[in-house]
Design a protein that fits this description.
With 348 residues, the chain is of the alpha/beta class. The protein is built from 9 helices and 19 strands. It is globular and about 60 Å long. The chain starts with a strand and ends with a strand. It comes from Cucurbita maxima (Pumpkin).
């Protein structure tokens, strides 16, 4: 049921620190991060994670084809970091790569667009609109021929998930009358403070062109958005802070997680595509999985394919994917880093 409110741990392999190198230990292999960045696997041909859509950029979907587009795959601060690009002493290799046009290390706030090919046509459903949403939309909406937004589903109420709500005014002023927002009650309470003028439009000056949003409160049980069944996946995003992942079809999306409650694992059964938080290569933080823990969860959940998201500037796209490619060869674990603009076909 959706309430409409109108406009109102198994043990993880641990890393050890040396003077110049942090070495990451995983069950089958290891790689190093030096001050110059990743040093291992330079000799391996750098794999590129390709879209499985098989179509050209901007090509219309076929009648029965759904897809996921990664609007962002990075942290709240984004990659590259300004502080890294302006550091006069230490050069951050990933951030300098990310400053290059088209580099896959360039990452905006984590989010995806689900293009659902339903019985009434294709619907565009966003998961999260973070503070860099405008920049993501500016790049990817024209590229992929996206004009309307049929719904927005919110994972949690941090700025990198809701900071772009105000930017939706471009759509509600120029493209469509309004946009429905699906959000948990606890996060809606936060929006009442951070975006009070979007929740209670009576406070705005007459004629002010703010976003026209229809807020729908979702419980932690399945609900339907534009004909698509969505199942919340409750997780912890730091001690005592609840965040939601979502399952649609056999795709499971968990972007911000430090712990998966036992009661959530049954909801992940028979997941085919898992999109999972993996902040850094060596360890987890208090609020996010690191790569070692994320891989432990992949082995437990056993999806057919995993795409990691939410990566910080210690995660070099090509080099971590090189390591993951070797892991696939040794263990059969099909996992890669995602990147902004990645487009994959899915069956929903």
């Amino acid at each position: 049921m959706v309430l409409f409110v109108g406009t109102t741990l198994p043990p993880t392999s641990m890393a050890y620190l040396a003077a110049l190198t942090t070495r990451v230990h995983l069950p089958t292999s290891s790689f190093s991060i030096t001050r110059k960045g990743f040093s291992a696997f330079r000799h391996i041909a750098r794999p590129l994670l390709q879209s499985v859509s098989g179509g050209d950029i901007g090509q219309p979907l076929s009648a029965n084809e759904s897809e996921i587009i990664f609007t962002g795959s990075g942290t709240s601060e984004g990659i590259p970091r300004v502080s890294c690009l302006t550091d006069p002493v230490k050069k951050c290799p990933v951030c300098f790569k990310a400053a290059e046009p088209g580099n896959k290390n360039r990452r905006l706030n984590t989010g995806i667009l689900v293009r659902y090919a339903g019985s009434s046509g294709t619907r565009n459903i966003l998961i999260d609109v973070g503070k860099f949403f405008y920049h993501s939309a500016l790049q990817w909406f024209p590229t992929f021929g996206i004009r309307t937004i049929d719904a927005v589903i919110i994972t949690h109420s941090h700025a990198d998930a809701i900071g772009g709500l105000d930017d939706l005014r471009d759509w509600t002023n120029n493209v469509q009358p309004s946009i429905p927002i699906y959000v948990a009650q606890r996060d809606f309470e936060v929006m009442k403070k951070t975006h009070y003028y979007l929740v209670d439009t009576s406070v705005i000056a007459p004629g002010a062109a703010v976003s026209d949003l229809q807020f729908n409160i979702i419980p932690e049980e399945p609900f339907v958005v534009s004909g698509l069944k969505v199942t919340p996946l409750p997780v912890w995003h730091g001690r005592g802070y609840r965040s939601l992942g979502f399952r649609f079809g056999n795709v499971c999306y968990i972007s911000d997680v430090s712990e998966i409650p036992e009661e959530t694992y049954p909801l992940l059964k028979d997941c085919e595509i898992l999109i999972m938080d993996a902040l850094r290569p060596d360890r987890s933080s208090s609020t996010h999985f690191g790569l070692p823990r994320a891989l432990e969860e992949v082995r437990k959940i056993q999806p057919k394919r995993t795409l990691f998201t939410g990566m910080m500037h210690l995660m070099d796209h090509d080099e971590v994917n090189g390591y993951l490619l070797k892991l696939k060869e040794s263990e059969g674990v099909d996992a890669q880093l995602s990147y902004d603009g990645l487009r994959i076909s899915v069956t929903l």
